[in-house]
C-alpha cells in the first residue's frame, strides 16, 4: 500500500493541518488493496442508499454519466475523457490538501485536484481531511454540469484575485466555498436537496443537514455568507440554501468582488449559528448540541 507524502504538520488559524507536497502524481491505481476497494464500496453503497430524495438531480446525473459504481475505486483515466467532453474539466491526482494559491490555480485552469488515497476502515464515519471518497464522490459528479463547472473555474480565478487583495478577502471567499461547494443546500419544488460535497460524502451529515431540528437553514445571500464563520470539526450550525445553480452563478460570478471586499474591511464576522433580522429562514435551529466555541 502506497503512503501519501505528507511533508509536515503546520500550525494555521484552523489548528494543525497536514501539509502535503504540491506535486501532481499518477493515481497508483494498481496498488489499492482489496480492503481499500472494500472501503470505497461500503462508502459508495451507504451513500447511495441515503441520497435518493436527498441529493440534487444533477449529482445523480453526473454519477451515472461517469459510471462510478461500488465495484471498485474508479480510475481517474477512465473518468477524464467523459469529464473533458462534458465541460472541459480534468482530474489530477494529488497527495492531499493543497496550499490555497496552488488550489486556485488548478481550478482556474479546470483541473480538479483529487486526493488519491482513501481513508482507512477505522475512519469510515469520520475523517478530518479530504480523502479520495470525499473528493471524487462528493465533488466530481457536479463538474459535469456546465453552470457548476463554470462556477468552479470562476471561483479559482476569484481566489487568485482575492489573494491580491489580502488575507481578509481570502477568508471571506473561503467562507463562500465552504457554504456552497462544501455544505450547500438547494431549494427545489420537491423540497430541500443537498449539493455540497462535504454533506454528500458524509452519512451523518446527509441526514443532519436536511432533517435535524438543530441547525439553521437560511436563504443564500452573498455578503451574508462571506461574513459568516464556520465549523471544521462538527456538523454545520448553519446551511445556506440556494434556489438554483443559475442563481448562485449570477450572484457570485457577475459582480466584481473588489467593492465587496472593501465594504467588509474590518467588519466583524457573524458567529456560525447566527440568524439575522431580515433573512429567509427555512428553519431556525434549536441549537441542540452546538459547542460554544470553535467557529473559524
Ligand atoms: N466575481 C468574483 C470576483 O470578482 C469572482 C468569483 C466568481 C468568486 C465565482 C466566487 C465565485 O472576485
Ligand atoms: Co471538499
What this model shows, in words?
- With 296 residues, the chain is of the alpha/beta class.
- It has one domain (6-283): Phenylalanine Hydroxylase (Orthogonal Bundle), CATH 1.10.800.
- α6 runs antiparallel to α7 (167-182).
- The model has no long low-confidence stretch (mean pLDDT 94).
- A five-stranded mixed beta sheet has the order 6-5-8-7-9.
- The chain has helices at 34-50, 57-66, 76-87, 100-108, 132-139, 146-165, 167-182, 197-200, 203-211, 222-226, 245-252, 257-264; strands spanning 6-12, 15-20, 90-94, 111-115, 185-188, 191-194, 216-219, 238-242, 281-283.
- A hairpin with a 2-residue loop joins β1 and β2 (15-20).
- The chain has twelve helices and nine strands.
- Phenylalanine binds next to α6.
- Cobalt (II) ion is lined by residues 130, 134, 139, 182, 197-198.
CATH homology-level superfamily = Aromatic amino acid hydroxylase
Mean pLDDT reading: 94
The total count of strands amounts to 9
Q: What do we call the CATH topology?
A: Phenylalanine Hydroxylase
For the largest beta-sheet, the strand count, sense and barrel status come to: 5 strands, mixed
- Into which percent range does the helicity of residues fall? 40-55%
Largest beta sheet: strand ordering: 6-5-8-7-9
Task: Compute the separation of the termini in Å.
Answer: 35 Å
What are the defining features of this structure?
Phenylalanine Hydroxylase; two-stranded antiparallel ribbon; alpha/beta; 296 residues; 5-stranded mixed sheet; 12 helices
Amino acid at each position: 500500500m502506497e503512503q501519501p507524502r505528507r511533508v509536515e504538520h503546520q500550525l494555521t488559524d484552523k489548528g494543525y493541518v497536514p501539509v502535503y507536497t504540491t506535486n501532481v502524481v499518477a493515481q497508483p491505481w494498481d496498488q489499492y488493496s482489496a480492503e481499500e476497494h472494500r472501503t470505497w464500496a461500503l462508502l459508495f453503497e451507504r451513500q447511495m442508499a441515503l441520497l435518493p430524495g436527498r441529493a440534487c438531480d444533477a449529482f445523480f446525473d453526473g454519477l451515472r454519466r461517469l459510471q462510478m459504481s461500488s465495484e471498485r475505486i474508479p480510475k481517474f483515466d477512465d473518468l477524464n475523457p467523459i469529464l473533458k467532453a462534458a465541460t472541459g474539466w480534468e482530474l489530477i491526482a494529488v497527495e492531499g490538501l493543497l496550499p490555497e494559491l496552488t488550489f486556485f490555480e488548478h481550478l482556474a485552469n479546470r483541473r480538479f485536484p483529487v486526493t488519491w488515497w482513501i481513508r482507512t476502515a477505522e475512519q469510515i464515519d469520520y475523517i478530518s481531511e479530504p480523502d479520495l471518497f470525499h473528493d471524487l464522490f462528493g465533488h466530481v459528479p457536479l463538474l459535469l454540469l456546465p453552470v457548476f463547472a463554470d462556477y468552479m473555474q470562476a471561483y479559482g480565478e476569484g481566489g487568485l484575485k482575492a489573494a491580491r487583495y489580502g488575507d481578509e478577502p481570502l477568508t471571506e471567499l473561503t467562507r463562500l466555498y465552504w457554504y456552497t461547494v462544501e455544505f450547500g443546500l438547494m431549494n427545489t419544488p420537491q423540497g430541500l436537496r443537498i449539493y455540497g460535497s462535504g454533506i454528500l460524502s458524509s452519512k451523518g451529515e446527509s441526514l443532519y443537514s436536511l432533517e435535524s431540528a438543530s441547525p439553521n437553514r437560511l436563504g443564500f445571500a452573498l455578503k451574508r455568507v462571506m461574513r459568516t464563520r464556520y465549523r471544521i470539526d462538527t456538523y454545520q450550525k448553519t446551511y445556506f440554501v440556494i434556489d438554483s445553480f443559475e442563481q448562485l452563478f449570477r450572484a457570485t460570478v457577475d459582480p466584481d468582488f473588489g467593492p465587496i471586499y472593501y465594504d467588509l474591511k474590518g467588519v466583524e464576522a457573524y458567529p456560525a449559528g447566527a440568524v439575522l433580522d431580515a433573512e429567509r429562514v427555512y428553519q431556525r435551529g434549536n441549537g441542540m448540541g452546538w459547542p460554544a466555541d470553535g467557529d473559524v
